Amino acid sequence: MNRKLKIALLTLLALSVAGFGWLWFAPCGMGGCAPVSDLDQYQAEGSELLDTNDKPFGTLSTVNRRVVSIDSLPAYLPNAFVAIEDRRFYDHGGVDWKRFGGAMMANVRRRGVAEGGSTITMQLARNLFPDALPYTERSIRRKVMEIRVARQIERAFPKKKILELYLNHIYLGEGSYGVEAAARTYFGKPASELTLAEAATIGGLGQLPSRRNPREDRAAARKRRDIVLRAMADGGYVPVAEAEAAMKEPMRVARKSRNPKERGSYYVDRVRRELEEQVGERFYKAGLRVFTAYDPVAQAAAESEVARQATAIESGAFGSFSHPRYTRGKGTDDDRGTEYLQGSAVVMDARNGEVRALVGGRDYEDSKFDRVFQALRQPGSAFKPFVYLAALEDGIAPTRRIEDAPISIPLSRGSSYSPRNYTGTFDGPVTMRDALTRSKNVVTVKLAQEVGMGRVADQARRLGITTPVPNNPAVALGSAEVRPIELVGAYATFANLGKRVTPHLVRRVESRDGEVLWEAENEGEEVLEAAEAFVLTTMLRDVVDRGTGTPVRAAGFRAPAAGKTGTTNAATDVWFVGYTPDMVAAVWFGFDRPQTIVRGASGGTIAAPVWGRIMQRVYAGRGAPAEWAAPRGVLTETVDRVTGLAVAQGCPARGPTYTEYFVNSRPPAEVCAPAGSYPGYPPMALDTAWRDEEWGSTDIQLPEPYNPDTVGMSDLEQRGIDWPELEAQRRRGERPRAPEPGSVEPLPPPDPYTPPPAPRT
């Protein structure tokens, strides 16, 4: 080895030994000591939440911090922390050098500070002095200071007292500092009454409590609990048989107390989670100012309209309801969720991803599970836009005619897949535009097969869907589960004509002195061609204006809007996901334990009207947004709705005409031919909100005999939907003038919202 290199290595080794020697033996007079004498006086101070108008609407502070004696706790509770956090706690003097050395080697291999090797004493030092040892700083400097303070604590207190301090100061999620607060928060009892399984659950929250919260992710909490129990058994703290018995216990948590009349409970909880991930738990005690996108008008609209519709469903307004009602089903929340009907809604600024309103369920106090950010549900036909986007990207024009006829797709092991439409009937050739407008299943599957399910899955992933999208035909109709917030984010990309944004609630965090500690990035990323997103938007506008989403208009919302209904197999999930030029929102109804809501339920009849009423109230005080402007690369042509061909000059059209949009190319012109030589096209009377041709909605009983030109009006009237002008046009076989692509006139702002009368008691 080179002599100079040897000298350098020896010098580095000497300095390291000297440094650690100083850490271990240096007196406080040389500096670096922390005021450990006042550890019992630690207190937490909450942070203020401000809405989109910078007005306070809530506070995040400690839920419950009570100091308890270690002698009052069951022995297995402190032992759970020792077993999983620091198994050599009683043998070291503040630093587990064997573990610390392993962590340092891992950091060298990863060329950064990835592992810390912190002991219980070092964690206590970090919790007691967060300003000197900031949570967000992962550096050698902080680790050296942790060791220094840990050594001070070890000199000042015996092991039992150190462990007691740790158990009273450690942050365990949901604003809980210490095991007593955590026991009351998660299990509704003092720490002295915790069972072995409950103690192991709390013991597993010492690291990443937001990700192992038993309320928010019971599977992750159960997995961590079992790891703690195994560690306790391996360390001899509990017999193996007792640990195995505790692993079999279900994960049950107490309902969290919060004023049920307080708005935005789900919103506040999501803000808390974002802050935990961005700035750590210090926001509970640092007196920060948290600026959010919370819109009190949108929140009030979303909460009241979801509650109003859920109550109407339970009352039988949409058909016989045979499930437990909310009033009787409260208190049934467990690993499988609640027994009663649930609903959720989210409103987001499409331009930057700021979430304005969030309703994660019907009752926060009864069920904290956030069905917007955490749930995995089948989207049904709300997934179809990904298929049609892939088709547009593949050069298929909206006027392309596809045969709506039976199809059988071979699968593995000799089986096959045969999608069907809502009524089991087929309409022959239909254009791609009308197939999406009318939510035609068979045509959608054929398109997905033509462009390839891999392309469809790629589109979904590019737009922010992170859940698995299997390569099978049924996925085109929305059989793969998604997180609702990710679906909303994908639709925001359509609204932005190609720019993807990240959903978030917190805008920025400031210290009490006004220093910006963290700020969200709202730049977005261009992931789609603007022309393709625009043409898809014109197709989804047809869904709202003359397709399965017409109840949005019947509810009174007149501003430019596009979107898609969704109904899953046996009507277990009903959706409407839609957007305007500046807002995107989603509404969902279903059961945590999937089952048919009511016979005949669909996204068009149940979810779409709620979306329309929410958006009407959101825009009541701000006016309608400007129309989408056609970007570069979009061409227009007058086409024949029957043939999908451009109308040639001097050649009479075979059916109604309209202005169609194309990406970079126009369709071929129509060749004049004798009348009657073109196949007929089914009248648009078939395309009604009560006849939602979506995936798997096969349980609906149609009247006998079924006549699509007369059925439905009474159903709409019973549901409070009254749009006689549109219905009259349909009966005459006319096409509504305003909704035609390319001819939509600017709509006046909606009338000011008038709240419905309070129900009589």
Automatic annotation (TrEMBL):
Q: Which UniProt keywords apply?
A: Carboxypeptidase, Cell shape, Cell wall biogenesis/degradation, Glycosyltransferase, Hydrolase, Multifunctional enzyme, Peptidoglycan synthesis, Protease, Transferase
- Gene3D superfamilies attached to this UniProt entry: Biosynthetic peptidoglycan transglycosylase-like, DD-peptidase/beta-lactamase superfamily
- In terms of domain of life, where is this protein from? Bacteria
* One Pfam family named in its UniProt record: Transgly
Give a Gene Ontology cellular component term annotated to this protein.
outer membrane-bounded periplasmic space
* Annotated ranges, domain Penicillin-binding protein transpeptidase: 343-616
What family is this protein classified in? In the N-terminal section; belongs to the glycosyltransferase 51 family.
Enumerate the PANTHER family for this protein.
BINDING PROTEIN TRANSPEPTIDASE, PUTATIVE-RELATED, PEPTIDOGLYCAN GLYCOSYLTRANSFERASE
Q: Know the name of this protein?
A: Multimodular transpeptidase-transglycosylase
The root-end lineage is:
Bacteria, Pseudomonadati, Gemmatimonadota, environmental samples
